[in-house]
């Protein structure tokens, strides 16, 4: 048709036509060190090496689903399988043209999240609510598997071009990357991917690190969060660079990895503001410990012998480090003690199989244990965590980043502390009078908003793993024979 431009289907075409999504300044990753100085110090260089990464798709046990029920006063209740009820709440109000107090989003549980039930759950929830709003009757929508796969989005494909300088002993002195990320037709979570990618990439001491990251807007389906978003690609890129350097120098790749592990000084340079104290850098000890516990060196020799006598099956083993930046977010909580002594708990986070409700339940039982009266044994059985409700508990945020369980537990503990403070002065008198606390005008419900301390909301954790893999040369079939993981939580 006249006037239509050709579609943008590749990241190269996006660059030619300057089609990009903007990366907000507050999550734009920062370089480290002096790249020119690092390149000058290098004994050898590899220039303009290329890596291409494809996509992956979510395959959750439960497809995207929602149910909307109109209520009186022009209100709408939406049951949505979403990782972020608060965001769904806001989008539903905009879609229906209603004030937010007319919308209630309830999430009982999510059948597999991994980022796929974050923003991608919104389209099903809003379509369901719109139909219910127009028809004035309950509507339920669930995707069949084919539709779900078509709309899932999946992991971001990327094209990476890098240049690396290094010493003859394998120590990298400088790494520069040009990264093109295919975000698809809609921003979704794409602007946050560069920060997560570079965060994972910084797990090695590159001497100096610089990059040019572009999030490309194309005419393909929009990509979304896929656990862990950006970090899978960042880790792969880091290991590909290390492997290339080792191959170029004809060195054992494990020795090159060991040579480029962080010192505390380099950690402070690469992870400014969250490196912590020197004694918190446990990666070197984990690195040695996993080699010892897994029998890494012995198994390396065994694998060499196996590969010499087997033509069509080959084995490999590798030891990989991990540095992960944890970000703790503010989270609400609510604890109510009912007339029979049972306890109701509400949290902003949702249950998607990570045990959030179990942890919150145990925290409530622990937090209230100091006011347990005679005859109220097994307090844990008296605690129930109810569904996440965006109207009952506001500012719930996202359940993502592997920290929502801990934040929710912290919020529950704050609520329990308030209740304990209210009830302890009355406990002795009530036991004598055998009268319930409610009759003495004590508020038996507490709502709190846990806000992490600014200095502690971002910190680093470390891990190391040894994995042994066997490959069938004829078919390409890969089997993980053994994985040993040590993680400092």
Automatic annotation (TrEMBL):
Assigned EC number: 1.2.3.7
Glycoprotein in keyword set: no
Keyword Repeat assigned: no
Top-level taxon of origin: Eukaryota
Entry-linked PANTHER family: ALDEHYDE OXIDASE 1-RELATED, XANTHINE DEHYDROGENASE
Family: Belongs to the xanthine dehydrogenase family.
Protein name: indole-3-acetaldehyde oxidase
């Amino acid at each position: 048709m006249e006037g239509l431009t050709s579609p943008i289907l590749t990241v190269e075409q996006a660059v030619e036509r300057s089609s990009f999504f903007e990366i907000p300044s507050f999550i734009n990753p920062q370089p480290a060190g002096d790249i020119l100085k690092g390149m000058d110090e290098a004994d050898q260089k590899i220039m303009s090496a290329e890596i291409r990464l494809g996509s992956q798709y979510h395959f959750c046990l439960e497809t995207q689903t929602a149910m909307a029920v109109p209520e009186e006063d022009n209100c709408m209740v939406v049951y949505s399988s979403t990782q972020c009820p608060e965001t769904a709440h806001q989008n539903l109000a905009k879609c229906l043209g209603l004030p937010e107090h007319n919308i209630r989003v309830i999430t009982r549980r999510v059948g597999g999240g991994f980022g796929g039930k974050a923003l991608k759950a919104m389209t099903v929830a809003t379509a369901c609510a719109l139909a219910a709003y127009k028809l004035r009757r309950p509507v339920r929508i669930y995707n069949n598997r084919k539709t779900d796969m078509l709309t899932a989005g999946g992991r971001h494909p990327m094209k990476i071009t890098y240049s690396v300088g290094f010493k003859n002993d394998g120590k990298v002195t400088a790494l520069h990357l040009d990264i093109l990320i295919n975000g698809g037709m809609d921003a979704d979570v794409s602007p946050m991917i560069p920060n997560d990618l570079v965060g994972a990439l910084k797990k090695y001491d590159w001497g100096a690190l610089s990059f040019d990251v572009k999030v490309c807007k194309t005419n393909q389906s929009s990509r979304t969060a896929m656990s862990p978003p950006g970090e899978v690609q960042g880790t792969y890129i880091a290991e590909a660079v290390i492997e290339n350097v080792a191959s170029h120098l004809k060195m054992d790749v494990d020795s090159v990895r060991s040579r480029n592990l962080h010192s505390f000084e380099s950690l402070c340079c690469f992870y400014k503001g969250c490196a912590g104290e020197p004694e918190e850098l446990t990666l070197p000890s984990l690195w040695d410990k996993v080699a010892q516990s897994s029998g890494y060196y012995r198994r390396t020799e065994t694998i060499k012998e196996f590969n010499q006598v087997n033509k069509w099956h080959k084995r490999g083993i590798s030891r990989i480090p991990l540095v992960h930046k944890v970000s703790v977010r503010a989270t609400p909580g609510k604890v109510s003690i009912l007339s029979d002594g049972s306890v109701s708990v509400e949290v902003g986070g949702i249950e998607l199989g990570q045990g959030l409700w179990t942890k919150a339940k145990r925290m409530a039982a622990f937090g209230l244990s100091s006011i347990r009266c005679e005859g109220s044994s097994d307090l844990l059985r008296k605690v129930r965590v109810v569904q996440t409700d965006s109207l009952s508990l506001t500012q719930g945020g996202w359940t993502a980043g592997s920290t929502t369980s801990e934040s929710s537990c912290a919020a529950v503990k704050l609520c329990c502390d308030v209740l304990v403070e209210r009830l302890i002065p009355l406990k002795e008198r009530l036991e004598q009078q055998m009268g319930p606390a409610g009759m003495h005008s004590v508020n038996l419900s507490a709502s709190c908003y846990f806000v992490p301390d600014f200095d502690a909301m971002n910190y680093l954790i470390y891990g190391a793993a040894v994995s042994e893999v066997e490959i069938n040369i004829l078919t390409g079939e890969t089997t993980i024979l053994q994985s040993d993981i040590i993680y400092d939580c």
